[in-house]
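User: Before I run my own analysis I want an independent prediction to cross-check against. Here's the chain; please return only the structure tokens and, at the end, one sentence I can use as a sanity check.
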Amino acid sequence: MQAIMLLVLALALAADPPPPPEAVVLGDEEVDETVLVTGELEVKKARDELTLKLRSEGYKRAERHGDYTVYKSEIAYHPQVWLHDDGWVSLRRQPPRIHSPGHAFADQGSPLNYLWCVPTLMTACVSVGGWMIGPRKYTGIKGDLLDSTRTEVRKVNDAVVRQHLGQRLYKDIPGDLDKLWRDAGVAAEVRRRLIFVYWDSRVENDAGYAAKKAIQSFILGVVQASPEPYTAAELASLNADRTSERPLVLAGLEAPAPSPAPTL
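Assistant: Structure tokens:
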């Protein structure tokens, strides 16, 4: 019995090992789409958090106007909050508001109540607090609101910046470069120079370095894989005239060795 068990064990060890699980590799388009969708969700989450914070401060109404949203407080002399799609937030005085007598602006009541808004009783239907409050008190109210929403506003700003940067890095820049590189009406040498100038002209900060890296990835994946890639001598010449502090470095390309001095 033991001999049979040893034989079975030996046969099992001698068998070919099972193949490893197949690796799943996302293509560039899938990665790009994932980044863009993630950016949109991050912006939405940050805006929702700001909306909840404003609601807790009495801003119960939100109205959409073009590329911005206006949040209005129940208190007439509190400023309106304008949240723009690009993340910019501004505060403005609330204009005079019409409401039915005995009801707040956020709770208009029955439309029949507006029958009381005849010319002789119009003051009962108009709130002018946003215009009547003094500058000093209004400035203090704005400061308190900015302090209470500072964290949420910063999250919206940061999320919008990251979304726009992702759009730029994973969609706009590759699209611009691909259109330029595929222009058969322009000589390949000119196209390569234009791409280098595009790389060289990026601002040297965190966003600019990210853009430079995206351009470098395009060069390595598209230009260098084509029948008309950069040569080492060409890259060295372009880098010699660059305005950037750092040169463009491409894997596999090295500057040509200097010619040996002639022997006398």
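Sanity check: Residues 1-31, 104-108 have pLDDT under 50 and may be disordered.
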